[in-house]
Design goal:
heterotrimer, A alpha/beta (280), B alpha/beta (148), C mainly alpha (258), A: 280 residues, alpha/beta, six-stranded mixed β-sheet, 10 helices, B: 148 residues, eight-stranded mixed β-sheet, 2 helices, 34% strand
Chain lengths: 280, 148, 258
Amino acid sequence: MRESMSTAERREETDEPLVRIRDLHFRRGGRTIFEGVDMDIPRGRVTAIMGPSGTGKTTLLKLIGGQLAPDRGTIEVDGRNVHALSRRALYRLRTRMGMLFQSGALLTDLDVFENVAFPLREHTRLNEPMLRKLVLLKLEAVGLRGARHLMPAQLSGGMARRVALARAMALDPMMILYDEPFTGQDPISMGVLVKLIRRLNDAARLTSILVSHDVQETCAIADWVYVISDGKVIESGPPRRLLESGSEWTRQFMHGLPDGPVPFHYPAPDLERDLFGEAA
Amino acid sequence: MEIAVGAFVAAGFVALFFLAMQVSNLGALDTSETYEVTARFDNIGSLKVKAPVTMAGVEVGRVSGIGFDQERYQAVVTLAIYERYDRIPDDTFAKILTAGLLGEQYVGLDPGGSETYLEQGDEIEITQSAMVLEEVIGQFIFGKAKEE
Amino acid sequence: MKAALARLGSATLDSVGTLGRAALLLLRILEGQAEVARKPRLLLEQLFSVGVLTVLIVAVSGLFVGMVLSLQGYYVLSQFAAESTLGVMVAASLLRELGPVVTALLFAGRAGSALTAEIGLMKATEQLSGLEMMAVDPVRRVLAPRFLAGFLAMPLLAVLFSTLGVLGGWFVGVGLLGVDDGTWWGQMQARIDWSEDLGNGVVKSLVFGFVCTWIAVFRGYDCVPTSAGVSRATTRTVVHASLAVLGLDFVLTALMFR
């Protein structure tokens, strides 16, 4: 049994990490995305992976979920090497993972109820009344039980994500992956989502992996943060420690400073030469 | 929606049936049993397998095979006659005719007077080959030239 | 010069790669047919969207093609006093060639492009990815039923096309141009062979259905997941499927009608 943690700063965990990434190397389209990344995702906690846009955070989620395979290194989920699994075993593993896509990725020809019911219909043999109760409970948890007959096209972005969250929770997974959940949300939806993620994680004893570049929201709920850039882990630790970090790069990122190790100016020749130099 | 799909599939099958029966020769197809006899010709012209075999203008069978005898350099045609026409005399005369002026060729039978009838495996002795257009024209020209 | 050759080489390699991916996808789709057998509802929905919704354009086209055939044929045949064979001409052209080919081209344009767009859009909005992460194989769930539906719908559509064409031709030939009704049907029934003409036509449309749907479904699944990518894929489906149909038609005709 897990002991309840009083402060988020205590890292000591009696269990093995749920996800263990070792020496991950991945290249795509000629670009190196990851170059020797090591990560441990502890059970029952909200772990955030942050970094500037384009560092491959979504790619990392796809690697964990087995949709992509690394060039080198291993990813273990619950003790099993994801990429050594047979297709059937991989699919079985996926039923224990929930993923929330940036756009929600709801099936557009089904209404809200059917979307949440989809994984239940596919993977369980529940009778209709039982299924209905489960679906309504999941929708209730995200506050959208009343919207059950709307079509995805009628939902706002925030509502769509909440339905997608209910769907990701439908099979009571052990882990949920969130791909940029806060991007493009108005403050109220943002607040709702933030609260939901934390509450669901604790109530259902989930492990949540959150990929984002929204520093404020993420740090409000994360127990542990990994900051990655240029294919490597720059720093990791509890949010407060990173916010007070001495590292220049981390400081620039966490505080949103316009200039620092990531320069303001895109590399360009000397200004004077450009303006007054030889005519082109 | 199921109704629409059902209607679609049904319409498709109705159309197929229509085409098979009303448009193609399936409606008139004779699937009766047949017995086979052979006939030899010096020249079969453009006779093809499945060409009709007629007697008094009525179809009594079909050409079921065309072969070549390398010993006697003759065409050996197998005729499949429908079982119900079992009183064809065995001295019947078989000739290859053309339907219309330039149409397909078929086998026409002229009955003889014999009391014994054709049976499976018999051969029709008396035959007349096809009239090949080029030869006729050639003869005509040759004949004309001779007159001059 | 060297650059042009290099580009040609890489283009060829790309094409070979695409063909390979398409073949592998086809294998997975065929495997996925077992799932379709277990969930006939999926097939039903796709037969509606691919078959039923294409009926209108196929029927109207068939009717008009038959009518034009009859009209044009009459003018030519009457010069040789051979109007009596008008029925045979119309029926033979439709059953052997126009029925399967024109239907396939219409199918590629209407149903094929719709399939590609739909699947491409699902890819671009991450629905296919979502299905994968929910442990549902999108190839079995989304692609396999659509493929079977296209394969089954095509011969039905082709037969509808030919039927309406024959009726349209009859209307023009017998109704308007004065060819004798009995002669029209009689000659047709004597000369059109059910296995040679009708049968081969059906075989052709099955082959076309297989190829058109394969291309449509592959292009959707393989496209670049952006709106530009989807529209490019849709265009490619129509072009490639049409060319494939015409090319295959030549090969099949050469094999069948000797």
